[in-house]
Automatic annotation (TrEMBL):
SMART domains: GIYc (SM00465). It comes from the Bacteria. InterPro entries: GIY-YIG_endonuc, GIY-YIG_endonuc_sf, UPF0213_domain. PROSITE patterns: GIY_YIG. This is GIY-YIG nuclease family protein. CDD domains: GIY-YIG_unchar_3 (cd10448). Residues 1-77 form the GIY-YIG domain. Belongs to the UPF0213 family.
Length: 95
């Protein structure tokens, strides 16, 4: 089963949210339409700026836990390696 580790941002260098899911389009829809209570809706974190695909959910969960321990600067570097303009990847139709 394919799984994703993803990072949402409120804006460039803004508030970050890190999550894991097996259905990225559905999860994005929930975040972007305020269907999830909590951190992402409270802080307006709806822009998909990073996503990483994994073949197994347990691998994705391990990676998510690893990234959550990273310093903020490292997370920003990770985003900018693949998305230097901080474009919303969901608007590009990639997910």
């Amino acid at each position: 089963m394919t799984a994703y580790v993803y990072i949402l941002a409120s804006d460039r260098n803004g508030t970050l949210y890190l999550g894991v899911t097996t259905d990225l389009p559905r999860r994005l829809f929930e975040h972007q339409n305020g269907l999830t209570e909590g951190f992402s809706s409270r802080y307006g974190v709806t822009r998909l700026v990073f996503a990483e695909q994994h073949a197994r959910i347990d691998d994705a969960i391990v990676r998510e836990k690893q990234l959550k321990k990273w310093k903020r600067a490292w997370k920003l570097d990770l985003i900018e390696e693949s998305n230097p303009d901080w474009r919303d990847l969901s608007e590009l139709g990639l997910f």
